[in-house]
Design a protein that fits this description.
Elements: H1 2-12, H2 17-50, H3 58-69
C-alpha cells in the first residue's frame, strides 16, 4: 500500500511528473515574455538616449514633432497610415 501511495504521488502530486511538465511549459512561456519585454525596454532606452538633454538627436525630435503635432513642411506630401495593432 505504501508503494502504491508513493507511486501515485510520483505522477499526480503537486510536485509530480505531470506538474513538472506544466511547470516546464510555464517557464517556456515566461521566458518568451521576458525576452519580448527586454526588447521593448532596449527600444525605449534607445529612444530616451536620443532625447537626452546633453545631445538631442534632431532627426528623432523632428519625427516626434511631426507625429504628435501633425506638422509638415509646405513642400511635403503627407500619407496617413493606420497605426499597427
Amino acid at each position: 500500500m505504501a508503494i502504491g501511495y508513493f507511486a501515485y504521488h510520483t505522477f499526480q502530486g503537486e510536485h509530480g511528473l505531470r506538474a513538472y511538465t506544466v511547470y516546464e511549459s510555464q517557464i517556456r512561456e515566461l521566458t518568451k515574455t521576458a525576452e519580448q519585454v527586454r526588447k521593448q525596454r532596449q527600444t525605449l532606452e534607445h529612444r530616451v538616449a536620443l532625447l537626452s538633454p546633453e545631445h538631442i538627436d534632431p532627426d528623432y525630435a523632428d519625427e516626434l514633432v511631426r507625429r504628435h503635432l501633425g506638422l509638415a513642411h509646405p513642400d511635403e506630401d503627407v500619407i496617413m497610415l493606420e497605426p499597427r495593432r
